[in-house]
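Morning - adenosine monophosphate inputs below, output right after.
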Amino acid sequence: MKCLGIETTAHTFGAGVSTEKKILSNELSMYKTERGGMLPREAADHHYQNAWRIINNALKNAKTSPSELDCIGFSQGPGMGAPLRIGAAIARYLSLKHKKPLIGVNHCIAHLVIGKLLKAKDPVMLYVSGANTQVIALDEGRYRIFGETLDNGVGNMLDAFARSAGIGFPGGPVIEKLALKGKKYVKLPYTVKGMDISVGGLLTNLKQKLGKHKLEDLCHSLQETLFSMLVEVSERAMAHCNKKNLLLTGGVAANKRLQEMCKKMCRARNARLFAPPTSLARDNGAMIAYTALLMHKKGHCTRIEDSQIRPRWRTDQVKTIITI
Ligand code: AMP
Ligand code: MG
């Protein structure tokens, strides 16, 4: 069976084709800026302009024609309204035109379900992306949030600091590069509250320190502080839930230093780290296709009249159809 998946929750227009076992294609175009952040209407314009090229490439690379598809999946939420509407409209159109079932997918769940491809059995999941930062585990049939950010998502925080430092969007990869050249640790606020973290104070403090320290040192100190907070709450969740695997996912999971710190923690507790390749950890269409296909196989389908976007759809509101 094959499914086409469409991703448009934020900066990325992604389209991918998947079977139950394998990703056949994964194409994307990302909205970027040299300076300043992301404007939702500009991201939506970007998606509209690139949609058909990306979808056609995804089908071509998967050697699949629309008639061979078994269903069409799309990110129904959570995310930004304007970009989400573009993906939903295109998915509805393709579903009606080619008479294929439509499957609305929760974007966060798709990030987690990708762990199934890696054979990560019953992990604690550290999901770190732009808007989302959550420590999740499957418990009694639901993906439950054991810890999360009390204010900004980690990626958005990195992007906000990058915007203040004038190094463009997305900020995470540039901060990672600069951090490699940082030598001095500058003391920064470390805020863990039980199982949750808060990054607002850290961001404010960093902005105040801009110009007073080398940017490379600030980036290094930011990564060490922020990622230690994430590792601390993940480890606590693993200990409470007695789980032996950690799945690191979301766009920030591409960060090598974060991966290294998680690996070290897992090694110390005899656990295993699963980190998908960046192409599947960041926002992408293949994870939507893969999740939608597994949902379709379990008999799930989204009626057109129920396919409205859900910008605030939380992970723990989703009825669990796919477990990993
Ligand atoms: P997502 O929404 O899951 O695609 O994640 C996007 C977020 O990941 C953005 O906020 C980026 O700044 C962040 N990001 C991407 N690559 C890296 C990296 N290498 N290190 C840290 N953050 C990153
Ligand atoms: Mg995401």
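Note: The chain has ten helices and twelve strands.

O.
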